[in-house]
């Protein structure tokens, strides 16, 4: 039980002493690279499984990587980008294309600016 004769300390702490400075990690892009060994269906399916993209968004990325040679799939922290890159590299070959030897390739790159 508290002693009613004791007064509570009501000093205020200056604002600058209570604020913590959070340093944000620089963002990284996960970039899917084009090749001739994977079908649109493979790309769409992979993006649905690994990124949770709806079919239409997966198709847009498949078109972009086919047209431009690359597409940015995600902008995130370096650690998360590395995880997504590893998942793409481990996804396996496209069973729709005979002679497909393995997964697609992806790189991570710092966001410019």
Describe the fold and architecture.
This protein has 113 residues and is of the alpha+beta class. It has a single domain, classed as Ribosomal protein L7/L12, C-terminal domain/Adaptor protein ClpS (Ribosomal Protein L30, Chain: A). The protein is built from four helices and three strands. It starts with 14 loop residues before the first helix and ends with a strand.
Number of domains: 1
Query: For the residues shown, what is the average pLDDT?
Result: 89
Let me know the number of strands: 3
CATH architectural name: 2-Layer Sandwich
Quote the distance from N terminus to C terminus: 58 Å
Q: Tell me roughly what share of residues is in helical segments.
A: 25-40%
Oligomer category:
single chain
Examine the coordinates and then state which fold CATH places here, giving the name of the CATH topology.
Ribosomal Protein L30, Chain: A
**Neighbour order of strands in the largest sheet:** 2-1-3
* Topology order in helix (H) and strand (E) letters: HEHHEHE
Q: What would you call the structural class?
A: alpha+beta
> What is the C-level CATH assignment?
Alpha Beta
Low-confidence parts lasting 5 or more residues at pLDDT below 50?
none
CATH superfamily: Ribosomal protein L7/L12, C-terminal domain/Adaptor protein ClpS
Largest pleated sheet = 3 strands, antiparallel
Count of DSSP-assigned helices: 4
Q: Specify the overall morphology.
A: elongated
Whole-number radius of gyration?
A: 24 Å
Percent range for β-strand residues = 15-25%
């Amino acid at each position: 039980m508290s002693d009613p004769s004791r007064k509570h300390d009501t000093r205020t702490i200056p604002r600058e002493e209570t604020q913590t400075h959070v340093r944000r990690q620089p963002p990284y892009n996960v970039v899917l690279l084009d090749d001739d060994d994977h079908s649109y269906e493979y790309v769409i399916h992979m993006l649905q499984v690994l990124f949770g993209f709806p079919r239409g968004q997966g198709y847009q990325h498949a078109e972009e990587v086919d047209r431009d040679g690359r597409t940015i799939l995600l902008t995130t922290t370096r650690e998360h980008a590395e995880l997504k890159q590893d998942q793409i590299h481990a996804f396996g070959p496209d069973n729709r294309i005979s002679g497909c030897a393995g997964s697609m390739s992806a790189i991570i790159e710092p966001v410019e600016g």
